From TrEMBL:
Keywords: Hydrolase. GO terms for molecular function: hydrolase activity. It comes from Olivibacter oleidegradans. Pfam families: PagL (PF09411). This is Acyloxyacyl hydrolase. InterPro entries: Lipid-A_deacylase-rel.
Amino acid sequence: MLPLRSPILQLNMLKLSKIVFSFLLLFTVATHKSWAQFHPRYLSLSDSSSINISEKKHFVIQLEHENGGVLTGNERAKESLRDAYYNAFNLKIGWQTKHGGDVYHQLYNYPVYGVGLYSSTFGLDHVGDPYAVYGFVSIPIKPRVNRRWNFNYRISLGLSGRFNPYSEDENPFNLIIGTKNNVFIDFGGQVNYTLSRHFQIGAGLAFHHFSNGALKLPNTGINLLPFTAAVTYVPNAKTFDFRKQYIVPNPKEDELQFSYAFGFKQLDEDNERKYFKSTIGVFWSRYLGYKWRLGLGANIFYSASANDPEVAGDKESSFNALFSGGPAFYIDHLLTSKLYLNGNLGYYLHRNEFNRETKPMYLRIGGRYYVYKDFFAGVSIKAHAGKADFIEWTTGYTLDLRKRK
């Protein structure tokens, strides 16, 4: 019997792949209509002439409680989280972007950017009581003044700690995660009701994922789909300025991106050695309006594990063992003129199963930021069929091939 400290509450839900697909579908649809996070008073262009609007930044504080929704899609998760009782709190502090700034602020109805602190318990000593520190963005939908009900979605990314990792001798019950510190990924939707000029209450649904990107095994990961309840406080009671101006068509059209990424991966629980891995990518892409870039290209992957005869066997240090790769579909979702989400869906023309490239398709997804002019940096996760391969630390350069006349 696994050690526990709380009553049993476990929701057997859809598999992780269906959950992620559903959130991506919701995310894609929502971006065309621009959902919001947590500001209680909205202003449209039609009613802007009669409202006393505020030119100051709006500071927003939200306290959110989470409960339930432990996903157990495989035998390891079922065994390790069998008696889990999940509870968590989030404290979020954000600032609403101002009228007249980055054009993307207007396109997304002046989203809230901020930081959050997450603290949770599973009621299980062998899992731990994780916390996380993260950044988030939340985006309004159809802002209007005097609307009591409003909706939102958010995207969050951060680092977590205080897990009790697997140890064969000291903690054999945790079969799902091998590190104290892990990546924290969060998607969420929320509906809010305005109580007064300063307060509102809300409820919603969230999806969380914890993973170390196979930096240390085991790395089955933890996935949650909890219900949430929140209280929001807005110190500035004046109406926010949501007015919009005409935006000219995006002058940018075609781009060529060059990127290099690296990371480390543990291949086997019996072998604690971490092997260096890297990725070179070249992609052409075209803008679809301001929010999307789509394109094609290819990735080449290098794996130092090919130099280990115990891993590569007779293929040790050969070119085919060291390298793998293939073409990929390219997609960017731009959040600001500098910050964007990036993804690749690719097909291996050549792969090495000893390096855990066990599926014909690969996925890369992450975030990037232009740190200086056309030079960018970021972080992403490479995966096979929902199972992490390794965490990539990325840098690169974007070449603007052509501009609209």
